Amino acid sequence: MSADYWRSTQRERWKFTAEQLSKLHQEVSHNDLKSGIDDPCQAWDDHIRIYIYNLVQTLGQRLGCRRRVLSTAHVYLMRIFTKISIHEMNIFLLVTTAVYVAGKTEEQPQHIRTISNEARVLWTDYMPSEATLIAECEFYMIEELHGCLIVHHPYRSLSFLCESMADTHPWLVLSNEEFQGIWAVINDSYASDIPLMYAPHIIATSALYMTLVLRPQLIRPPRPPDKIKARIDVLASYLGKSAIDLEKIAECVQELVSLYARWETYDQRQTHLRVLKTLSLEKP
């Protein structure tokens, strides 16, 4: 495991193209079919992904976890579900374990009984009562991840971008509202496959582009149209002169746009009922 993304297992073993990810999920679905599970309503899809994202967020907020802990937990779960079906394990136990392991990795550990108790408060009917099951699931998770626990996130790349842009042109100095908007887009990206498909600096730059170019009216006071265009031109010039792969940025931005479109159609209750079917439970 390396502190350098370019030599990390994240890049060498856990980075995929969209086609590769689709093939992996198809293989998991095929294994479901061989096991006699052929209900499309219980298949892995974007709404299940958003549902799991919300589970991690809810547990993390209750535990007071730092953002990096939650982001690392999200990546663990994304990786796990390229290998197993949502039918193979209790999702609530798996989410709890991911947050538990991520806390250790990011040096904000939670006592196993604390995290077990908090998870049971949130998901009383669905979370096993034995804290020892989290420990057992931890060994399983680490094995499935091949011990690759270090995760590189876009937050550091964002800080570097902000400093570099500020040194380049005064119009590229970000306001606090803009910075928070970019940070929020990065956080949202963990509800998709984006962290498995793109390098951290690509995600950070794409979130910046989304915030400054595509959604400016949502995160800062309106500027005169001529100044907005001039600023975008300066940003485009900056990105054009950088070594950042603009084609990858365009792809990642499209993935973010698609994510927000899917979020518009997301139904929490219906997805919850689907998840309960995977647990063979009747309670809503």
TrEMBL record:
GO terms for molecular function: cyclin-dependent protein serine/threonine kinase regulator activity. GO terms for biological process: regulation of transcription by RNA polymerase II. The keyword Phosphoprotein does not apply. It comes from the Eukaryota. Pfam families: Cyclin_N. Keywords: Cyclin. Residues 54-143 form the Cyclin-like domain. SUPFAM superfamilies: Cyclin-like. The keyword Cell membrane does not apply. Belongs to the cyclin family. This is RNA polymerase II holoenzyme cyclin-like subunit. It comes from Wickerhamiella sorbophila.
